[in-house]
Structure to design on (120 residues):
Protein backbone atom coordinates (compact mmCIF):
# COMPACT_ATOMS: atom_id res chain seq x y z
CA UNK A 1 0.00 0.00 0.00
CA UNK A 2 2.74 2.43 0.96
CA UNK A 3 4.63 1.61 -2.23
CA UNK A 4 1.55 2.39 -4.38
CA UNK A 5 1.12 5.73 -2.61
CA UNK A 6 4.81 6.57 -3.05
CA UNK A 7 4.70 5.68 -6.75
CA UNK A 8 1.56 7.81 -7.20
CA UNK A 9 3.12 10.84 -5.49
CA UNK A 10 6.36 10.42 -7.47
CA UNK A 11 4.40 10.20 -10.73
CA UNK A 12 2.49 13.38 -9.83
CA UNK A 13 5.72 15.25 -9.06
CA UNK A 14 7.31 14.17 -12.36
CA UNK A 15 4.19 15.08 -14.34
CA UNK A 16 3.95 18.50 -12.70
CA UNK A 17 7.67 19.15 -13.28
CA UNK A 18 7.27 18.28 -16.94
CA UNK A 19 4.21 20.52 -17.23
CA UNK A 20 6.15 23.39 -15.65
CA UNK A 21 8.95 23.01 -18.19
CA UNK A 22 6.46 23.09 -21.07
CA UNK A 23 4.76 26.27 -19.86
CA UNK A 24 8.13 27.93 -19.18
CA UNK A 25 9.24 27.11 -22.71
CA UNK A 26 6.30 29.04 -24.13
CA UNK A 27 7.73 32.22 -22.60
CA UNK A 28 4.38 33.56 -21.43
CA UNK A 29 4.16 35.96 -18.53
CA UNK A 30 1.36 34.53 -16.43
CA UNK A 31 -0.48 36.14 -13.57
CA UNK A 32 0.86 34.95 -10.22
CA UNK A 33 -1.32 34.94 -7.12
CA UNK A 34 -0.88 34.15 -3.46
CA UNK A 35 -3.50 32.67 -1.16
CA UNK A 36 -1.85 32.59 2.24
CA UNK A 37 0.18 29.60 3.39
CA UNK A 38 -1.86 27.20 1.31
CA UNK A 39 -1.09 28.32 -2.22
CA UNK A 40 1.67 30.75 -3.17
CA UNK A 41 3.26 31.95 -6.37
CA UNK A 42 1.03 30.32 -8.99
CA UNK A 43 -1.67 31.31 -11.42
CA UNK A 44 -3.83 28.57 -9.87
CA UNK A 45 -3.75 30.26 -6.47
CA UNK A 46 -6.14 32.89 -7.84
CA UNK A 47 -8.89 30.26 -7.61
CA UNK A 48 -10.35 28.64 -4.51
CA UNK A 49 -8.03 26.40 -2.52
CA UNK A 50 -9.08 22.94 -1.32
CA UNK A 51 -9.84 24.06 2.23
CA UNK A 52 -12.21 26.73 0.82
CA UNK A 53 -14.66 24.10 -0.43
CA UNK A 54 -13.72 20.87 1.36
CA UNK A 55 -14.33 21.20 5.09
CA UNK A 56 -13.41 19.09 8.14
CA UNK A 57 -16.95 17.72 8.59
CA UNK A 58 -16.96 16.44 5.00
CA UNK A 59 -13.64 14.68 5.51
CA UNK A 60 -14.89 13.14 8.77
CA UNK A 61 -18.07 11.89 7.05
CA UNK A 62 -16.16 10.36 4.13
CA UNK A 63 -13.51 8.66 6.24
CA UNK A 64 -15.37 8.05 9.49
CA UNK A 65 -13.89 4.55 9.86
CA UNK A 66 -10.27 5.54 9.26
CA UNK A 67 -9.42 5.28 12.97
CA UNK A 68 -11.11 1.93 13.57
CA UNK A 69 -8.81 -1.05 14.29
CA UNK A 70 -9.76 -2.69 10.98
CA UNK A 71 -8.19 0.17 8.99
CA UNK A 72 -4.67 -0.76 10.17
CA UNK A 73 -3.65 2.91 10.22
CA UNK A 74 -5.22 4.40 13.34
CA UNK A 75 -4.23 8.04 13.65
CA UNK A 76 -2.31 8.03 10.37
CA UNK A 77 -4.53 10.30 8.29
CA UNK A 78 -6.60 13.31 9.28
CA UNK A 79 -7.98 16.44 7.63
CA UNK A 80 -5.04 18.66 8.58
CA UNK A 81 -2.55 16.14 7.15
CA UNK A 82 -4.53 16.01 3.89
CA UNK A 83 -4.57 19.81 3.60
CA UNK A 84 -0.86 20.07 4.40
CA UNK A 85 0.00 17.41 1.80
CA UNK A 86 -2.23 19.04 -0.81
CA UNK A 87 -0.43 22.38 -0.38
CA UNK A 88 2.56 20.88 -2.18
CA UNK A 89 0.45 20.40 -5.31
CA UNK A 90 -2.06 23.27 -5.17
CA UNK A 91 0.38 25.79 -6.73
CA UNK A 92 0.73 23.27 -9.57
CA UNK A 93 -3.02 23.10 -10.13
CA UNK A 94 -4.20 20.19 -7.93
CA UNK A 95 -7.73 21.06 -6.87
CA UNK A 96 -7.31 24.69 -7.93
CA UNK A 97 -7.79 24.45 -11.72
CA UNK A 98 -11.01 25.51 -13.41
CA UNK A 99 -14.21 26.54 -11.70
CA UNK A 100 -15.49 25.38 -8.34
CA UNK A 101 -17.35 22.39 -9.82
CA UNK A 102 -14.25 21.16 -11.67
CA UNK A 103 -12.14 21.62 -8.55
CA UNK A 104 -14.62 19.62 -6.49
CA UNK A 105 -14.70 16.85 -9.12
CA UNK A 106 -10.92 16.57 -9.07
CA UNK A 107 -10.78 16.27 -5.27
CA UNK A 108 -13.71 13.83 -5.27
CA UNK A 109 -11.92 11.63 -7.81
CA UNK A 110 -8.73 11.70 -5.76
CA UNK A 111 -10.52 10.91 -2.48
CA UNK A 112 -12.56 8.20 -4.21
CA UNK A 113 -9.32 6.58 -5.34
CA UNK A 114 -7.84 6.83 -1.86
CA UNK A 115 -10.99 5.38 -0.32
CA UNK A 116 -11.04 2.47 -2.75
CA UNK A 117 -7.39 1.63 -2.15
CA UNK A 118 -7.57 1.68 1.64
CA UNK A 119 -9.68 -0.20 4.12
CA UNK A 120 -11.41 3.01 5.18
Amino acid sequence: MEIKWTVFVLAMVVAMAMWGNVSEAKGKKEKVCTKGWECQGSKYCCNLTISDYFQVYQFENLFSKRNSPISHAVGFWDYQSFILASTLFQPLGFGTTGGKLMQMKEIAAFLGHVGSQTSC
Summary: The chain is about 50% helix and 5% strand. The chain has a mean pLDDT of 74.
